[in-house]
Every structure is written in C-alpha cells, then in structure tokens.
Write a structure and sequence with these properties.
77% helix, Arc Repressor Mutant, subunit A, Tetracycline Repressor, domain 2, 2 domains, single chain, elongated, mainly alpha
C-alpha cells in the first residue's frame, strides 16, 4: 500500500517539475534526465509513468486546458447576461488562470504545428474549446468565423500581458482585473451590433 502511495506521489511530482522547467527556460526543449533530476529519481523510472517528453507535455497541456475551460466557459455560457458582460467575465477568468498558472499553455501552443508534442485528443479538446468560444462570439457580434478568431487572438493578448505584469510584481491583481475589464469591454463593445433606435 505504501509503495503504491509513493508511486502516486512520484507521478504527481513529475508534471509540476516538468512545468517548472518549461516555464523557467521558456522552451519545451527539456530532457527526461532534467525532469528526473528535479524529482530525484532515475531517468529509467520516468518511463513507468510517461513514454517520453512529448507525453509529459501532452499531460500538462490536458491538465491546464481543463483548468482554463473551467475558468472561462461557465462565464461565457451564462446566457441570461449580455454577451459583452459574459466576454468580460470570461477574459477575467482567463486572466486569473494565467496569474495562477503562468504561461504554460502559451509556451506549448507556440510550437510549430509539425513540431507539436500534443496528442490527437489534446488537439481535439483545444479546437473544441476555441470553436465553442468563437461560435458564441460570431453569433453575438454578427462576425464571420475568421473575424471572430482574429478578435479572440488579439484580445487574448490583454490578459496575457497583464498576467505577466502581475507575476513580475509590476502591478497588483486588482489593477490588472480593472484594466482587463475596461479594455475587453471597449474591444468587444466596439464590435457589438448597433441597437436600432
């Protein structure tokens, strides 16, 4: 029983160790040896849990994508609120996720498509999340899918930049949230269909 518990603990240590290494180096170029050294185990023991570095990165991505979805989707899906309010709440959730978790998803996603370490299921879940957000954006703002994707891409930079400032202790959390709220409201509001008189 203790052996199984220790193995579970060890597995739980691997992903945070890999995440720290990726965030510190700001690259996905890490080795199993580096991860093993961080956890204090032999490199060969890592193969009990993961087939290699791509499998570790894929597991990290799946974990963080689940967290991100939990932060933004409930806000976006609150159909009783106007879309601009739902979008502002979703971006506030994204900002909070980034402050807490750092840029791990961004670092993984910036890899060129052919070099991506992500498995089929992770890619599918990511595309499902993005399409779900884009679909609501299209419908609410009367945009084409391409316009919605561009708007999402550009406005995502707002919480990403603010989270970096909070994590570097350049601004406080409250200032970041207030700034995010104003910028997102202005950005999304600028695309909102005009209400006829």
């Amino acid at each position: 029983m203790d052996t199984m518990s220790a193995e579970g603990d060890r597995e739980q240590q691997l992903l945070p160790a890999a995440e720290r290494l990726i965030c510190e180096s700001r690259t996905l170029n890490l080795s199993l040896g580096e991860v093993a050294e961080h956890v204090g185990v032999s490199r060969s023991l890592l193969y009990v849990y993961f087939e290699g570095v791509p499998a570790i990165i894929d597991a990290l991505f799946a974990k963080h994508l689940g967290r991100l979805g939990a932060q933004i989707l409930p806000n976006l899906d609150a159909a009783e609120q106007p879309f601009c309010e739902r979008a502002a709440a979703a971006y506030a959730g994204y900002l909070e996720y980034l402050i807490e978790s750092g840029p791990i998803l961004q670092l993984i996603l910036r890899e060129r498509h052919q070099d991506s370490p992500l498995g089929f299921e992770s890619k599918r879940h990511f595309l499902h999340l993005v399409r779900r957000v884009a679909k609501q954006t299209c419908e609410a703002l009367s945009l084409t899918p391409r316009e919605a994707f561009v708007l999402i891409e550009i406005t995502s930079g707002i919480p990403e930049a603010l989270a970096r400032l909070v994590r570097d202790d350049e601004i406080d959390r409250a200032t970041a949230h207030a700034t995010c709220q104003r910028l997102i409201a202005a950005s999304v509001g600028g695309f909102a269909p005009a209400v006829p008189n």
